[in-house]
Amino acid sequence: MEFSKRVAVITGGGSGIGRAVAAMMARRGVAAVALVDVSEAVETVAEALNTEAGREVAIPFRGDTTDETFRASVFDSISQKCGPVSLCVPAAGITRDDLAVRIDKVTGKARIYPLELFKQVVDVNLIAPVYWALEMIGRIAENRAAKGLKRWTADEGVQGSVVFIGSISSQGNRGQVSYASTKAGLEGAAATIMKEAIYYGVRCSVIHPGFTDTPMVRAMGADYVAKNILPYTQLGRLIQPREIADAICFMLENSAVSGELWVDAGWHAPA
Fold it and tell me: What's phi and psi for 98, nearest 5 deg?
Protein backbone atom coordinates (compact mmCIF):
# COMPACT_ATOMS: atom_id res chain seq x y z
CA MET A 1 0.00 0.00 0.00
CA GLU A 2 2.04 2.94 -1.29
CA PHE A 3 1.54 6.40 0.19
CA SER A 4 1.56 8.28 -3.11
CA LYS A 5 -1.84 9.85 -3.84
CA ARG A 6 -3.07 8.81 -0.38
CA VAL A 7 -4.66 11.28 2.04
CA ALA A 8 -4.07 10.84 5.76
CA VAL A 9 -5.54 12.09 9.03
CA ILE A 10 -3.29 12.26 12.07
CA THR A 11 -4.53 13.44 15.46
CA GLY A 12 -2.04 14.66 18.02
CA GLY A 13 -0.08 15.94 15.04
CA GLY A 14 1.27 19.03 16.76
CA SER A 15 4.04 17.19 18.62
CA GLY A 16 5.61 13.88 19.51
CA ILE A 17 4.69 10.74 17.62
CA GLY A 18 1.94 12.38 15.56
CA ARG A 19 4.28 15.02 14.21
CA ALA A 20 6.96 12.44 13.45
CA VAL A 21 4.48 10.27 11.54
CA ALA A 22 3.35 13.24 9.44
CA ALA A 23 6.96 14.13 8.59
CA MET A 24 7.77 10.57 7.59
CA MET A 25 4.62 10.26 5.49
CA ALA A 26 5.56 13.46 3.68
CA ARG A 27 9.02 12.06 2.91
CA ARG A 28 7.39 8.89 1.57
CA GLY A 29 5.23 10.85 -0.85
CA VAL A 30 1.80 11.03 0.79
CA ALA A 31 -0.46 13.45 -1.08
CA ALA A 32 -1.80 15.28 1.98
CA VAL A 33 -2.02 15.02 5.75
CA ALA A 34 -4.70 16.55 7.94
CA LEU A 35 -2.67 17.54 10.99
CA VAL A 36 -5.06 17.66 13.95
CA ASP A 37 -4.23 18.97 17.41
CA VAL A 38 -5.79 20.92 20.27
CA SER A 39 -2.69 23.13 20.48
CA GLU A 40 -2.18 26.25 18.40
CA ALA A 41 1.32 24.90 17.71
CA VAL A 42 -0.21 22.73 15.00
CA GLU A 43 -0.16 25.74 12.66
CA THR A 44 3.59 26.22 13.09
CA VAL A 45 4.26 22.50 12.78
CA ALA A 46 2.32 22.27 9.52
CA GLU A 47 4.23 25.24 8.12
CA ALA A 48 7.55 23.64 9.08
CA LEU A 49 6.61 20.30 7.53
CA ASN A 50 5.55 22.00 4.29
CA THR A 51 8.81 23.91 4.14
CA GLU A 52 10.78 20.72 4.68
CA ALA A 53 8.77 18.89 2.02
CA GLY A 54 8.91 21.76 -0.47
CA ARG A 55 5.17 21.47 -1.07
CA GLU A 56 1.85 21.85 0.74
CA VAL A 57 1.35 18.46 2.29
CA ALA A 58 0.32 19.21 5.89
CA ILE A 59 -2.97 21.02 6.48
CA PRO A 60 -3.53 22.08 10.11
CA PHE A 61 -6.79 21.68 12.00
CA ARG A 62 -7.04 22.92 15.57
CA GLY A 63 -9.72 21.50 17.82
CA ASP A 64 -10.87 18.98 20.41
CA THR A 65 -10.56 15.42 19.10
CA THR A 66 -13.43 14.30 21.34
CA ASP A 67 -15.80 16.69 19.53
CA GLU A 68 -17.93 14.82 16.99
CA THR A 69 -18.74 17.92 14.93
CA PHE A 70 -15.08 18.90 14.73
CA ARG A 71 -14.13 15.39 13.63
CA ALA A 72 -16.65 15.39 10.80
CA SER A 73 -15.56 18.87 9.69
CA VAL A 74 -11.93 17.75 9.41
CA PHE A 75 -12.86 14.84 7.16
CA ASP A 76 -15.20 17.01 5.11
CA SER A 77 -12.56 19.70 4.59
CA ILE A 78 -9.58 17.50 3.75
CA SER A 79 -11.70 15.26 1.50
CA GLN A 80 -13.10 18.17 -0.48
CA LYS A 81 -9.65 19.69 -0.94
CA CYS A 82 -7.44 16.62 -1.43
CA GLY A 83 -9.59 13.55 -1.94
CA PRO A 84 -10.94 10.74 0.26
CA VAL A 85 -9.00 9.81 3.40
CA SER A 86 -7.51 6.31 3.40
CA LEU A 87 -4.86 6.51 6.14
CA CYS A 88 -5.66 7.23 9.78
CA VAL A 89 -3.34 7.46 12.79
CA PRO A 90 -5.31 8.76 15.79
CA ALA A 91 -2.31 9.57 17.99
CA ALA A 92 -3.72 12.21 20.36
CA GLY A 93 -3.51 11.13 23.98
CA ILE A 94 -3.18 12.35 27.55
CA THR A 95 -2.03 11.03 30.91
CA ARG A 96 -3.51 11.80 34.31
CA ASP A 97 -1.29 9.57 36.41
CA ASP A 98 -1.83 8.76 40.09
CA LEU A 99 -2.11 5.71 42.28
CA ALA A 100 -5.47 3.96 42.11
CA VAL A 101 -5.76 4.01 45.91
CA ARG A 102 -3.84 6.18 48.33
CA ILE A 103 -4.15 6.50 52.12
CA ASP A 104 -4.27 10.04 53.45
CA LYS A 105 -1.56 10.24 56.11
CA VAL A 106 -3.52 12.75 58.16
CA THR A 107 -7.02 11.26 58.10
CA GLY A 108 -6.17 7.63 57.48
CA LYS A 109 -8.90 7.52 54.88
CA ALA A 110 -8.52 5.96 51.45
CA ARG A 111 -8.53 8.31 48.51
CA ILE A 112 -9.39 6.57 45.26
CA TYR A 113 -8.52 7.76 41.78
CA PRO A 114 -10.93 10.56 40.72
CA LEU A 115 -13.72 9.34 38.49
CA GLU A 116 -13.77 12.52 36.41
CA LEU A 117 -10.10 12.04 35.51
CA PHE A 118 -10.69 8.44 34.49
CA LYS A 119 -13.55 9.50 32.22
CA GLN A 120 -11.44 12.26 30.69
CA VAL A 121 -8.63 9.87 29.81
CA VAL A 122 -11.10 7.35 28.38
CA ASP A 123 -12.70 10.03 26.21
CA VAL A 124 -9.38 11.22 24.76
CA ASN A 125 -7.38 8.00 24.61
CA LEU A 126 -9.98 5.36 23.77
CA ILE A 127 -13.31 6.69 22.53
CA ALA A 128 -11.91 9.48 20.34
CA PRO A 129 -9.32 7.33 18.49
CA VAL A 130 -11.91 4.64 17.78
CA TYR A 131 -14.34 7.16 16.32
CA TRP A 132 -11.72 8.91 14.18
CA ALA A 133 -11.00 5.49 12.69
CA LEU A 134 -14.69 4.70 12.25
CA GLU A 135 -15.22 8.06 10.55
CA MET A 136 -12.73 7.08 7.85
CA ILE A 137 -14.07 3.55 7.53
CA GLY A 138 -17.64 4.80 7.29
CA ARG A 139 -16.78 7.17 4.47
CA ILE A 140 -14.92 4.47 2.56
CA ALA A 141 -17.96 2.21 2.99
CA GLU A 142 -20.25 4.96 1.67
CA ASN A 143 -18.04 5.54 -1.36
CA ARG A 144 -18.10 1.84 -2.16
CA ALA A 145 -21.86 1.65 -1.77
CA ALA A 146 -22.28 4.61 -4.11
CA LYS A 147 -20.33 2.66 -6.73
CA GLY A 148 -22.40 -0.46 -6.20
CA LEU A 149 -19.52 -2.31 -4.53
CA LYS A 150 -20.16 -4.73 -1.68
CA ARG A 151 -17.68 -7.13 -0.11
CA TRP A 152 -14.09 -6.14 -0.87
CA THR A 153 -11.87 -8.51 -2.86
CA ALA A 154 -8.09 -8.68 -2.83
CA ASP A 155 -7.73 -7.76 -6.48
CA GLU A 156 -9.07 -4.27 -5.65
CA GLY A 157 -6.07 -3.47 -3.47
CA VAL A 158 -6.26 -2.29 0.12
CA GLN A 159 -8.71 0.59 0.47
CA GLY A 160 -7.51 2.03 3.77
CA SER A 161 -5.41 1.45 6.86
CA VAL A 162 -5.60 2.45 10.52
CA VAL A 163 -2.92 2.25 13.21
CA PHE A 164 -3.91 2.90 16.81
CA ILE A 165 -1.32 4.05 19.34
CA GLY A 166 -1.29 1.60 22.21
CA SER A 167 1.42 1.49 24.87
CA ILE A 168 3.57 -0.87 26.87
CA SER A 169 1.43 0.39 29.78
CA SER A 170 -1.39 -1.78 28.45
CA GLN A 171 0.37 -4.61 30.28
CA GLY A 172 -0.02 -2.71 33.53
CA ASN A 173 2.05 0.12 34.97
CA ARG A 174 2.06 1.52 38.48
CA GLY A 175 0.27 4.86 38.75
CA GLN A 176 -1.46 4.56 35.36
CA VAL A 177 -4.80 2.89 36.05
CA SER A 178 -6.68 5.13 33.61
CA TYR A 179 -3.99 5.36 30.91
CA ALA A 180 -3.26 1.61 30.97
CA SER A 181 -6.97 0.80 30.76
CA THR A 182 -7.42 2.89 27.63
CA LYS A 183 -4.39 1.46 25.89
CA ALA A 184 -5.50 -2.08 26.66
CA GLY A 185 -8.94 -1.14 25.38
CA LEU A 186 -7.49 -0.16 22.02
CA GLU A 187 -6.26 -3.74 21.56
CA GLY A 188 -9.82 -5.05 21.71
CA ALA A 189 -11.13 -2.23 19.54
CA ALA A 190 -8.49 -2.80 16.86
CA ALA A 191 -9.06 -6.56 16.78
CA THR A 192 -12.81 -6.08 16.44
CA ILE A 193 -12.66 -3.29 13.86
CA MET A 194 -10.25 -5.33 11.74
CA LYS A 195 -12.75 -8.20 11.56
CA GLU A 196 -15.50 -5.82 10.42
CA ALA A 197 -13.60 -3.22 8.36
CA ILE A 198 -11.87 -5.70 6.08
CA TYR A 199 -15.32 -6.16 4.48
CA TYR A 200 -14.65 -2.72 2.97
CA GLY A 201 -10.94 -3.37 2.38
CA VAL A 202 -9.70 -1.48 5.43
CA ARG A 203 -6.96 -2.86 7.67
CA CYS A 204 -6.62 -2.01 11.38
CA SER A 205 -3.77 -2.66 13.79
CA VAL A 206 -2.18 -1.27 16.94
CA ILE A 207 1.39 -0.33 17.82
CA HIS A 208 2.68 -0.34 21.39
CA PRO A 209 5.46 2.23 21.84
CA GLY A 210 7.78 2.15 24.80
CA PHE A 211 8.92 5.31 26.58
CA THR A 212 9.47 7.79 23.78
CA ASP A 213 11.16 11.19 23.83
CA THR A 214 7.93 13.20 23.66
CA PRO A 215 6.52 16.12 25.68
CA MET A 216 4.34 13.63 27.58
CA VAL A 217 7.34 11.63 28.78
CA ARG A 218 9.58 14.66 29.34
CA ALA A 219 6.88 16.08 31.62
CA MET A 220 7.72 13.28 34.06
CA GLY A 221 11.02 15.02 34.75
CA ALA A 222 14.60 14.08 33.95
CA ASP A 223 15.19 12.60 37.41
CA TYR A 224 12.17 10.31 37.16
CA VAL A 225 13.18 9.13 33.68
CA ALA A 226 16.75 8.45 34.81
CA LYS A 227 15.66 6.53 37.91
CA ASN A 228 12.50 4.72 36.87
CA ILE A 229 12.68 4.25 33.10
CA LEU A 230 16.17 4.06 31.65
CA PRO A 231 17.48 1.34 34.04
CA TYR A 232 14.73 -0.99 32.79
CA THR A 233 15.24 -0.25 29.10
CA GLN A 234 17.63 -2.53 27.23
CA LEU A 235 18.72 0.27 24.88
CA GLY A 236 19.48 2.52 27.84
CA ARG A 237 17.74 5.53 26.25
CA LEU A 238 14.35 6.89 25.29
CA ILE A 239 12.99 5.89 21.90
CA GLN A 240 13.03 8.66 19.32
CA PRO A 241 9.68 9.67 17.77
CA ARG A 242 11.05 9.00 14.28
CA GLU A 243 11.68 5.37 15.29
CA ILE A 244 8.04 4.95 16.27
CA ALA A 245 6.97 6.79 13.10
CA ASP A 246 9.03 4.42 10.96
CA ALA A 247 7.31 1.43 12.58
CA ILE A 248 3.86 2.98 12.07
CA CYS A 249 4.52 3.66 8.39
CA PHE A 250 5.73 0.08 8.04
CA MET A 251 2.45 -1.16 9.51
CA LEU A 252 0.42 1.10 7.22
CA GLU A 253 2.31 0.17 4.06
CA ASN A 254 2.79 -3.57 4.47
CA SER A 255 -0.57 -5.25 3.95
CA ALA A 256 0.71 -8.55 5.31
CA VAL A 257 1.26 -7.00 8.76
CA SER A 258 -1.68 -7.40 11.11
CA GLY A 259 -2.41 -7.41 14.82
CA GLU A 260 0.01 -5.70 17.17
CA LEU A 261 3.60 -4.52 17.06
CA TRP A 262 5.67 -3.82 20.18
CA VAL A 263 8.26 -1.06 19.75
CA ASP A 264 9.41 -0.91 23.36
CA ALA A 265 13.23 -0.83 23.18
CA GLY A 266 13.27 -3.85 25.44
CA TRP A 267 11.66 -2.10 28.41
CA HIS A 268 10.26 -4.23 31.22
CA ALA A 269 8.49 -2.79 34.24
CA PRO A 270 10.08 -3.45 37.63
CA ALA A 271 8.13 -5.69 39.98
Answer: -175, 160
Contact indicator for 91, 106 with CB cutoff of 8 Å: no
pTM above 0.70, yes or no: yes
3-state helix, strand, coil in the chain (%, to 5): 50, 20, 35
Q: What does the alpha-carbon distance between residue 77 and residue 38 come to, in Å, rounded to a whole number?
A: 17
CA-closest candidate to residue 190, choices 213, 162, 209: 162
DSSP one-letter string for 39-81: STHHHHHHHHHHHHHTS--EEEEES-TT-HHHHHHHHHHHHHH
Work out whether the CA dihedral 205, 210, 211, 212 comes out positive or negative.
negative
Closest CA to 49 of 18, 83, 95, 88: 18
- Assess contact for 208 and 168: CB atoms under 8 A: yes
Q: What is the pLDDT of residues 28-73, one digit of tens each?
A: 999 999 999 999 999 999 999 999 999 999 999 999 999 999 999 9
Q: What is the C-alpha to C-alpha distance for residues 19 and 35, in angstroms, rounded to an integer?
A: 8
